[in-house]
Write a structure and sequence with these properties.
- Helix content is 27%, strand content 21%.
- The chain has 361 residues and is α/β, with parallel strands linked by helices.
- The chain has two domains: 4-146 and 333-357, Rossmann fold, CATH 3.40.50.720; 151-326, Dihydrodipicolinate Reductase, domain 2.
- The strands form three sheets. It has a six-stranded parallel β-sheet with strand order 2-1-3-4-6-5, with helices on both faces. It has a six-stranded mixed β-sheet with strand order 10-7-11-14-13-12.
- Helix 1 (14-23) crosses helix 12 and helix 6 packs parallel to helix 8 (202-213).
- The chain starts with a strand and ends in a 16-residue tail after the last helix.
- The structure holds NADP nicotinamide-adenine-dinucleotide phosphate.
- The site of NADP nicotinamide-adenine-dinucleotide phosphate has 30 residues, from helix 1, helix 4 and helix 12.
């Protein structure tokens, strides 16, 4: 299969580095562009990026020159790890110029014509692209977003339980420091501490974005799932891995055994298609009473799996459990790459193949 040329926007940051790592040797994509702010443009990637990942920077990327932001980059798809304000400024411009945009930023996730996709959960929501292109007058470009990193493990855990009719959720997050980017939370706020606030929008996103992903595609957009979600979001002194404790009530009152069976037998589309980044299994269900833990479980499935444990009855709602995922891999860059793999496998990226140079829409 000919590879499609891709670029990373915000390539020097916490999520951008993950993109670089995951795309450096990808079977479908050829990473040809690393772009960032004026502070980095013109420097080698080695010089510009303060590399924070434990595996070394891929050698062939280290010598690449970081590009300045422009809609004239030598690639067909862009993976955006831009901060919200710059995502707002640039992502639309890239899509309008004919690029396929896979965004991590929150800015377009709730637009009614923008798919907010977790490939295991709502791959059919990519159907929104038809009306996105028609409504915005784009013949080739598009914007596809991936989940907020905190909603992500909870939505993965709830998706196989949708047939039981989840009604209400109380979710408390314990979010890693890398979720705030680099350099992120000041060390004197983080060490020996818990900060019971992430951003004004974080708890809102847990509700709205989860209900969109678990909702149903209709002719016009997505009908939200209608689950009442009360979220408490906290920053904790963990490097990577967002852990979420969840209590849920259900219409159909499944037994604990029903729930475990639903999780363990779930074989959604990316796993059926054996996409390169799809973890097998998507959900790792742990029986130990002290799992999941960020340090021990965040790298399950190469950082792409969601680990669930501590399933037990709840005195207030029906059941409760704990779930965990790697925030910069599955909750960010890896989630976006899996979206792109899904589109490629479904023949939705044909217009971007075999392009000698970028052709605007
Ligand atoms: P970060 O570490 O602060 O990195 C920001 C990146 O954006 C850097 O590459 C920076 O380049 C670049 N940038 C800043 N200003 C720019 C400008 N004017 N033009 C072009 N590039 C510019 O942030 P992050 O944690 O990687 O987050 C990136 C995005 O992903 C955010 O929208 C965030 O909400 C989202 N996200 C993050 C996570 C996570 O776990 N961290 C999870 C899900 C989603 P320079 O180095 O040149 O300044």
């Amino acid at each position: 299969m000919p590879k499609i040329r891709v670029g990373v926007l915000g390539a020097t940051g916490a999520v951008g580095q993950r993109f670089a790592q995951l795309l450096a040797h990808h079977p479908y994509f050829d990473l040809t562009v690393l772009a960032a702010s004026d502070r980095s443009a013109g420097k080698s990637y080695r010089e510009a990026a303060n590399w924070i990942l434990t595996e070394p920077m891929p050698a062939h990327l280290a010598e690449m020159t970081v590009q300045e932001m422009s809609t004239n980059l030598s690639c067909e798809l862009v993976f955006s790890a831009l901060p919200t304000n710059f995502a707002k400024e640039w992502e639309h411009q890239f899509a309008a110029a004919g690029y396929g945009v896979f965004s991590n930023a929150g800015v377009h996730r709730m637009d009614s014509d923008v798919p907010l996709v977790l490939p295991e959960v709502n791959p059919d929501h990519l159907g929104l692209l038809k009306q996105q292109r028609a409504g915005r007058g784009w013949s080739r470009g598009f914007i596809v977003t991936n989940s907020n990193c905190t909603a992500m493990p909870m939505v993965m855990a709830l998706a196989p339980l949708m047939p039981f009719g989840p009604q209400a959720v109380i979710a408390t997050s314990l979010q890693a420091l890398s979720g705030a980017g680099y350099p992120g939370v000041p060390s004197l706020d983080a060490i020996d501490n818990v900060v019971p606030f992430i951003a004004e929008s974080e708890e809102v996103k847990m509700n709205t974005e989860s209900n969109k992903m678990l909702g149903r595609l209709n002719g016009q957009g997505v009908d939200p799932a209608g689950i009442k979600i009360s979220a408490h979001c906290n920053r904790v002194p963990v490097s990577d891995g967002h852990l979420v404790t969840v209590s849920v009530s259900f219409r159909d009152k499944p037994s604990l055994g029903d729930i475990v069976e639903a999780w363990q037998t779930w074989q959604p589309l990316p796993q059926q298609l054996q996409l390169p980044s799809a973890p097998q299994p998507p959900l790792v269900v742990r029986a130990e009473s002290n799992r999941p833990q960020p340090r021990l479980d965040r790298d399950a499935g190469g950082g792409m799996a969601t680990t669930i444990g501590r399933l037990r009855p709840c005195e207030v709602l029906d059941v409760r459990f704990v779930c965990l995922a790697h925030n910069t891999i599955r909750g960010a860059a890896g989630g976006s790459v899996l979206n792109a793999e899904l589109m490629a496998a479904q023949g939705m990226l044909e217009a971007f193949k075999a392009e000698a140079s970028h052709v605007p829409a």
